[in-house]
Design brief:
Structural class: alpha+beta
Largest sheet: 5 strands, mixed
Distance between the termini: 51 Å
Helix content: 55-70%
Number of helices: 11
Amino acid sequence: MRTPRRFSRPKLIVGDRRVMLAAAFGAATLCALLQIVLYAAGAYTRGPGSLAELALSLLLDAFLPLVVRFPRTVGALAIAITTILAAGAGLAPGVMTARGDPFVTPVAAPIVVSFLVALLPWRQAFAYAAVLALPAIPIWSPSWRTLYVALSATALPALLALYLKVRGELVRSLRKRAELADSERRLLAERAETAERQRLAADLHDIVTHHVTEIVLHADALRVTTRDDDARAAAEQIRRVGTRTLTELRDLMRVVTTGARPVPTGRPDDDTGGDLATLAAADDAALHVEGDPGTVPAVVARAVYRVVQESLTNARKHAPGAPVTVNVVYPGDRADVEVRNEPAQRGTDPALTGAGSGMGLTGLNRRVTLLGGTFSAGDDDKGGFTVTASIPASAM
């Protein structure tokens, strides 16, 4: 069984409600002042009927600001007051209206009709307007002029308000369609960019994987066949570095192609990127480690190593001779890294500073962000440079 359709008053946003409340208050004030001024100026025939008509009109003016919150109630009040005035004018002239006045529609009635059309479904709004038009037509004094005035006070405001309402909805609909079209264009551009990036990443993966695999195979063959202990150790180191490179490349390709965070396949020592102590010692940096590095997965350990490695490289290039401090903390649920270098002790080498791609810190930011962490890099207030990163241990 089909559920009957129920009409409800449209919900207004705060800005629209405030505008309508201000308009209702302003219209009520103007209507009340106009009626009082006309009565005081003698525009109405003096008598109890004029006072009663003025009192009923002012009553509707007083309730007009409530039309935004209670449109049906104010509409019913407008119909009731118009009916009372029409009945008084037709049955007892001079008692409820000014004697001889054929127009009984309150001044605020057209405004009420306009608000009803703006706030209610159009069928309900025009039903109120039609019911209001019946007592507004003075059937005891029929004429084209009175009919024109009555319809102008009810039907014309309803049609005008309906036109403005439909026009506003059309403008909002066109604006929404334009916004959706713009969002679709951006989405298509992002998809094209992602597809191109994945294609380039696949090409890079194929090229690098092929050559690194050859290096690993040759290094492994050299390790097996050589009789020189130093050559065997060097070949083993080359094999381990090449294997680790292939592992990291596989993880990065998974991130690029699927958008998922890298999943560590284990926690072997050679899967953490390298030894931080050896890395710091090679650059004469002071290393301070707190906590247990084993509380974070291998992918986080590799990211920590890369942050320290790139930061030390930047310090060596842009602040030669400056003391460097590396602080790594493992609170248990994350890894916090801070690498800070003092101001440069000597001039930089232009050939060295210009040799990089300029994407080191950008790449670190992307790596840390993909792991769900935060990254920052910039000058400090003492003339040095600080790189910080915080990576959650749940990054997987």
